[in-house]
Specification:
Length: 318
């Protein structure tokens, strides 16, 4: 019992230290970077507002959500706080400005996060189609993966093509160098990551797992995650030569051996430092590598931080 208590005391000290590190860095360095003061007039149509003829796919800083379809997961007030990473529906995330979705599914096509489940994937498709029908120039990266420990839904690749075929941008390395206007009217880059089923190939309507990469570390310590994100981002090729999307997740996750295991209070330790992260990318010389930035509980400021840097790139200021 004593060793457990001692361990918890040390963990609380480590957490307090790490929170202070980010707070002090924020105070000393600030959050200024090229485009930081830009605000889109319409977040629902922010790509269209940046001129699709000038906006290259590989220069976009894509605002993404982590565990996107968990707004209604589990049982309210009982299991939901342990798995909910977003409070908005998929449609409302897209309207807010989200452009990368992270969906985990199980064999029956229901969305899940670990052992907890929510609505069927059909709800995700309905929300995406509604958003696409209301906009003209917004491109979405849709990542769908079979959750760890689960089996692939039968023929799910065929299902995705049947449901989204008219919108799908086919797997092609040349897409990265194209502008948004050059890929229209296609609007969705769908990355399918099965556990055991066949993976998509070049020219297929769906994209294979290697086209959306990240370096996830499972920690609830904010400075540890922040530093890891910078380190791994710095190891990537610049966006000008990269033939895949690289994602940085501005999140930390609850740990089972910590008294606080609800998602929101844990992820709030890093949530407010997205702009600091972008400014540190400039300070560390890796701003030309930043591409997909994801978060829990996405908000307006997070979207505007990403769109602002995208605008600066178009204007040749970053």
């Amino acid at each position: 019992m004593g060793s457990v208590a001692s361990k918890q005391v040390e963990r609380r000290k480590a957490l307090s230290t790490e929170k202070k590190v980010l707070c002090d860095l924020n105070t000393s360095s600030g959050c200024q970077y090229a485009g930081c003061d830009y605000k889109p007039s319409d977040r629902k149509n922010w790509m269209g507002g940046l001129n699709p003829e000038k906006l290259h796919i590989n220069k976009i800083v894509w605002p993404g959500t982590h565990d996107s379809a968990t707004n209604r997961i589990g049982i309210p007030l009982i299991t939901r706080p342990f798995a909910q990473c977003q409070s908005l529906s998929i449609y409302h995330q897209l309207v807010l400005g989200t452009r990368v979705l992270d969906i985990r599914i199980q064999e029956d096509r229901r969305v899940c996060h670990g052992i907890l489940v929510t609505y069927n994937f059909d709800v995700v498709v309905k929300d995406i189609k509604r958003f696409l029908s209301e906009t003209e120039s917004e491109v979405i990266i849709l990542e769908v993966r079979t959750e760890f420990g689960h089996k692939d839904p039968p023929d799910f690749d065929k299902y995705l093509v049947e449901q989204l075929g008219e919108y799908l941008i086919h797997q092609d390395d040349r897409v990265f160098q194209k502008t948004v206007s050059e890929v229209l009217p296609k609007r969705v880059i769908c990355v399918w990551k099965p556990r055991n089923s066949a993976h998509p190939r070049g020219g297929d309507p769906l994209w294979s797992a290697g086209y959306l990469k990240d370096n996830w570390i499972d920690t609830d310590l904010p400075s540890t995650k922040f530093d890891s994100n910078l380190k791994h981002l710095g190891e990537q090729p610049p966006i000008s030569s990269r033939k895949y999307f690289y994602r940085v997740e501005n999140t930390v996750t609850p740990k089972a051996d910590n008294p606080i295991i609800c998602v929101r209070p844990v992820t709030n330790r890093i949530h407010g430092y997205a702009r600091l992260f972008i400014s540190q990318c400039f300070a560390k010389g890796c701003a030309d590598r930043l591409q997909v930035l994801s978060t829990d509980f996405i908000d307006e400021d997070f979207v505007e931080a990403c769109v602002g840097l995208t605008h600066a790139r178009i204007e040749g200021k970053a």
